[in-house]
Amino acid sequence: MSLTSPRSIPNILSIAGTDPTGGAGIQADLKSFAAHRGYGMCVVTALVAQNTQGVREIHLPPVSFLRAQLDAVSDDVALDAIKIGMLGTEEIISTVADWLDTLGFRGELPEATGHDDAGARPVLVLDPVMVATSGDRLLDAAAESALIAFLPRADLITPNVPELALLAGGEPATEPAGLIAQARAVADQHQVVVLAKGGHLDDASAQESVLDTLVYPTQSGERAEEEQFRSPRIHTQNTHGTGCSVSAALAALAARGHSWSTALPVVKDWMTAALQDSERLDVGQGHGPIQHFAQLWR
Ligand SMILES: Nc1ncnc2c1ncn2[C@@H]1O[C@H](COP(=O)(O)OP(=O)(O)O)[C@@H](O)[C@H]1O
Ligand SMILES: Cc1ncc(COP(=O)(O)O)c(N)n1
């Protein structure tokens, strides 16, 4: 997958909720875009009163205002990539879906591995945010089926272990084989590339390393394709916003012409450094943020 005419600095939009402590959501996405040499923009879906310890309150601006923000960006700026995070409610999901359709996205895509047929429409990465690291819900239970119906619009989805279980309709996986089987089911059913993130796995194989697997949807007559990427597990509490940051980084690298397969090792090396260097930050008393600029400030 590549854009037809990549700008030297790509324009990348995050559509997500906020984290006033700067570690997750929109704030993490913007840092992640910058760390990967993209011009970051953002449209807020939800204002979240949260910190490194948990979520206190969520304020949802009217969806007419969400649409006004989306139109203000797309009426003026050519987008190379979009990263979607917290959507929150069914109403927000359908507002974003309607806006995407004006950009040339359709609910069903004939080709799922890279959309070479889709001309210059932006690459779309969806992080199906449902529950924060703290355990607080960020998506209404009633909106889960709307989120599942939204999946085929994305080029890549990046669920963690509990999110993938919900999308696949099963129990959370406890080892890689179970996780990959669920990702295969979701990829084939919705014809979307799935990055199955293994950060939450706790089996013997997950003690010293973290496994992330790219699972490509099976086209009729084609062999199933999966690619596994391991990186060292960093033993730290500072994992607030890792999922947001990884999906944003992948959107930025895709906008610069990377395939998922070439982007993911770059992103994992960057995440390893960002988790290691998080110890230099002194932000909050719970799950602290990662250090997005570890490599830049070295
Ligand atoms: N302790 C860790 N050490 C190294 N990489 C990690 C660690 N925790 C998470 N990651 C990486 O961060 C990303 C997000 O992981 P995960 O925890 O599975 O999702 P989420 O943050 O959405 O809950 C993945 O690419 C994963 O490999
Ligand atoms: C607004 C917002 N979006 C997403 C997350 C999930 O964060 P994590 O990457 O730690 O699961 C969050 N805590 N807040």
Automatic annotation (TrEMBL):
Keyword match Transferase: yes
SUPFAM superfamilies cross-referenced by the UniProt entry: Ribokinase-like
Keyword Disulfide bond: no
UniProt cross-references to InterPro entries, sorted A to Z: HMP/HMP-P_kinase_dom, PM/HMP-P_kinase-1, Ribokinase-like
GO MF assignments: ATP binding; hydroxymethylpyrimidine kinase activity; phosphomethylpyrimidine kinase activity
Superkingdom as given in the UniProt entry: Bacteria
Catalytic activity: 4-amino-2-methyl-5-(phosphooxymethyl)pyrimidine + ATP = 4-amino-2-methyl-5-(diphosphooxymethyl)pyrimidine + ADP; 4-amino-5-hydroxymethyl-2-methylpyrimidine + ATP = 4-amino-2-methyl-5-(phosphooxymethyl)pyrimidine + ADP + H(+)
Alphabetical keyword list: ATP-binding, Kinase, Nucleotide-binding, Thiamine biosynthesis, Transferase
Biochemical pathway: Cofactor biosynthesis; thiamine diphosphate biosynthesis; 4-amino-2-methyl-5-diphosphomethylpyrimidine from 5-amino-1-(5-phospho-D-ribosyl)imidazole: step 3/3
Family matches, as NCBIfam families: HMP-P_kinase
UniProt-recorded name of the protein: Hydroxymethylpyrimidine/phosphomethylpyrimidine kinase
Organism: Nesterenkonia aurantiaca
